[in-house]
Design goal:
Elements: H1 13-29, H2 36-48, H3 53-62, H4 70-76, H5 80-94, H6 101-112, H7 123-132, H8 142-150, H9 161-178, H10 185-197
Helix pairs in contact: 1-10, 2-3, 5-6, 6-9, 8-10, 9-10
């Protein structure tokens, strides 16, 4: 087991094989058009520089989350301009190339925290940040957490988790490149998602 929130994850041959196979399995089973919503929203964010309520709703649909919750009701009664003021700061942060990826992720996550539904938890917030910077950010969720654990990598739920998650994701992308595979952060999260959904480790 690595130290908590390792900054330089190392995979031995067995754990690398698990991650690589999980990624291959994902692509053999997933629909080629599943990310169309993410791509469309990402294009709109690139044009507007912010994320509006309609885009948040589309991403909620993409993540297959419930919309009959208190935070959704609270968000719906906010003016879209107010939502965009907040999300615009997050979009700017995750695309700030003066910051390393982990720092940009941490700043982006912090910028979203004033919005209803984004005070705690990183799963849906990470979806927004990934849509805002699809080449830099990655989605975090329970299955990605489980995937990390199956690799022997620890990620605590302490404050600042998303930034630490992205440190690990970038490290895994570097590990993949060292082994001859050019993986983006998004590809790493898909591999973790697939690995985390497996019921056993073979």
């Amino acid at each position: 087991m690595t130290k908590p929130d390792a900054t330089a994850p190392f995979l031995n041959e067995h754990t690398w094989s698990l991650l690589r196979q999980a990624y291959a399995d994902f692509h053999s089973e997933a629909s080629a058009v599943y990310d169309e919503v993410l791509i469309e929203v990402s294009d709109r964010i690139r044009s507007s520089g912010s994320i509006g309520k309609a885009d948040i709703g589309a991403l909620l649909f993409w993540k297959r989350l419930r919309a009959d919750t208190r935070w959704v009701r609270e968000l719906m009664v906010m003016a879209d301009s107010e939502v965009r003021d907040t999300t615009g700061r997050a979009v700017s942060a995750v695309n700030d190339t003066a910051l390393d990826v982990a720092s940009a992720a941490a700043e982006g996550r912090k910028a979203l925290s004033p919005l209803p539904g984004f005070v705690r938890g990183d799963a849906f917030a990470s979806a927004l940040l990934t849509a805002a910077a699809p080449d830099r950010m990655a989605v975090y969720d329970r299955r990605a957490q489980t995937g990390l654990e199956k690799l022997g990598l620890s990620l605590s739920a302490a404050s600042g988790r998303y930034g630490r998650y992205m440190t690990i994701v970038v490290g895994l992308a570097s590990e993949a490149e060292r082994r001859g595979h050019r993986w983006s952060p998004r590809q790493v999260d898909l591999a973790l998602f697939a690995l985390g959904g497996q019921t056993r480790i073979s």
